[in-house]
Amino acid sequence: MRPKSEIRVAIAMSGGVDSSTAAALLKAEGYSVFGVTMRLPQADEYRESSASCDEAVSEIRDARKTADILGIQHIVADLRKEFREQIIAYFCDEYQQGRTPNPCVLCNPQIKFGRLFEEAHKHGAERLATGHYVNIDYLPGSKRYALRTAENRAKDQSYFLYRLTQEQLARSIFPLAGLTKDAIRQKARAAGLAHVAEKAESQENCFIGDRGYQNFLKAHLPPASQRRGPIVDTQGNVLGEHEGIHLYTIGQRRGLGIALGGPRYVVDIRPDSNTLVIGENHELFTSEFLVHSVNWMSLPGLTEAMECRVKIRYRSIAAPAVIMPGGHSDEVNVIFQQPQRAVTRGQSAVFYDNDTVIGGGIIAR
């Protein structure tokens, strides 16, 4: 086995406490570590205020300061073009089609663990480490790598990483899997990283900031795609007019502009007719849906029905279900034991066997 000092590891550094602490831990373990920070569009056309631009610049500055304190090399990878073409274009197109995307799910395999590693590899990197809260295992039975949920379940990020390929998993390192946030901050202080130890966590998509996704879409979608259309109930009765289907998501209650004597929610979005369907809360529940573009982790594929737990959004609890092969090789039918609320097209459904990620895909219907 090669000594760690001979293994060149790039740590993806965002300027926050998690990735900074991960860098310190890897160096302490003896790896040959260097930092790499993505330059994304957030500091340019996708952020409006000078404060937001300053924040984006400070992220690179803080990452570089961490690298200086640790005595490691730091590089910046300009991935603005790729991010615009692959992530932001996808984000906008999905909303135009009446779906609710999760850009992080796509960004991780394509940008962070894809293009970013390619840039790091030019500087000798063999492995890529990040500050994600997740474990990784090698399963001798299937001879595959798979993610396992972090010990800190409240912070677990396996949901966002289920699309990583076997090649990407094999070269990934996640140093923070067994740590709490308090422990990470403590280790940052101990490593002399006071400039990041108390930094607040980012809560929004990196390219949207505090503007909100609706304002972002209004600014970046072509006017022709922002058409008003009918709001109907589940019987087809016209109740009002919406401002564009891209501004709504399944389960949404606020902003409908309709008073009906009781709460109403978006229960369906029909892009073909530019129609928004609203209904009562009980109409949001469903037991069965189709998933497409499935990526398998712990298994090479699905040949028969399998019991597992399925998570339909990041903050939801994985619920008992049966998954079955669909009509195509990359499709899976999901049947929950109990109906789940607001199953949303465009979001991801991730399959778990206890704490191991089996795989996942995009909710189709």
UniProtKB/TrEMBL annotation:
<keyword id="KW-0547">Nucleotide-binding</keyword>
<keyword id="KW-0694">RNA-binding</keyword>
<dbReference type="Pfam" id="PF03054">
    <property type="entry name" value="tRNA_Me_trans"/>
</dbReference>
<dbReference type="GO" id="GO:0005524">
    <property type="term" value="F:ATP binding"/>
</dbReference>
<feature type="region of interest" description="Interaction with tRNA">
    <location>
        <begin position="155"/>
        <end position="157"/>
    </location>
</feature>
<keyword id="KW-0820">tRNA-binding</keyword>
<feature type="region of interest" description="Interaction with tRNA">
    <location>
        <begin position="313"/>
        <end position="314"/>
    </location>
</feature>
<feature type="site" description="Interaction with tRNA">
    <location>
        <position position="132"/>
    </location>
</feature>
<comment type="function">
    <text>Catalyzes the 2-thiolation of uridine at the wobble position (U34) of tRNA, leading to the formation of s(2)U34.</text>
</comment>
<dbReference type="Pfam" id="PF20259">
    <property type="entry name" value="tRNA_Me_trans_M"/>
</dbReference>
<dbReference type="InterPro" id="IPR046884">
    <property type="entry name" value="MnmA-like_central"/>
</dbReference>
<feature type="active site" description="Cysteine persulfide intermediate">
    <location>
        <position position="206"/>
    </location>
</feature>
<dbReference type="Pfam" id="PF20258">
    <property type="entry name" value="tRNA_Me_trans_C"/>
</dbReference>
<keyword id="KW-1015">Disulfide bond</keyword>
<dbReference type="GO" id="GO:0005737">
    <property type="term" value="C:cytoplasm"/>
</dbReference>
<protein>
    <recommendedName>
        <fullName>tRNA-specific 2-thiouridylase MnmA</fullName>
        <ecNumber>2.8.1.13</ecNumber>
    </recommendedName>
</protein>
<keyword id="KW-0808">Transferase</keyword>
<comment type="similarity">
    <text>Belongs to the MnmA/TRMU family.</text>
</comment>
<feature type="binding site">
    <location>
        <position position="131"/>
    </location>
    <ligand>
        <name>ATP</name>
    </ligand>
</feature>
<feature type="site" description="Interaction with tRNA">
    <location>
        <position position="347"/>
    </location>
</feature>
<dbReference type="GO" id="GO:0103016">
    <property type="term" value="F:tRNA-uridine 2-sulfurtransferase activity"/>
</dbReference>
<feature type="binding site">
    <location>
        <begin position="12"/>
        <end position="19"/>
    </location>
    <ligand>
        <name>ATP</name>
    </ligand>
</feature>
<keyword id="KW-0819">tRNA processing</keyword>
<feature type="domain" description="tRNA-specific 2-thiouridylase MnmA-like C-terminal">
    <location>
        <begin position="287"/>
        <end position="363"/>
    </location>
</feature>
<dbReference type="InterPro" id="IPR023382">
    <property type="entry name" value="MnmA-like_central_sf"/>
</dbReference>
<feature type="binding site">
    <location>
        <position position="38"/>
    </location>
    <ligand>
        <name>ATP</name>
    </ligand>
</feature>
<feature type="domain" description="tRNA-specific 2-thiouridylase MnmA-like central">
    <location>
        <begin position="214"/>
        <end position="279"/>
    </location>
</feature>
<dbReference type="GO" id="GO:0000049">
    <property type="term" value="F:tRNA binding"/>
</dbReference>
<feature type="active site" description="Nucleophile">
    <location>
        <position position="107"/>
    </location>
</feature>
<dbReference type="InterPro" id="IPR004506">
    <property type="entry name" value="MnmA-like"/>
</dbReference>
<dbReference type="InterPro" id="IPR046885">
    <property type="entry name" value="MnmA-like_C"/>
</dbReference>
<keyword id="KW-0963">Cytoplasm</keyword>
<dbReference type="GO" id="GO:0002143">
    <property type="term" value="P:tRNA wobble position uridine thiolation"/>
</dbReference>
<keyword id="KW-0067">ATP-binding</keyword>
<dbReference type="InterPro" id="IPR014729">
    <property type="entry name" value="Rossmann-like_a/b/a_fold"/>
</dbReference>
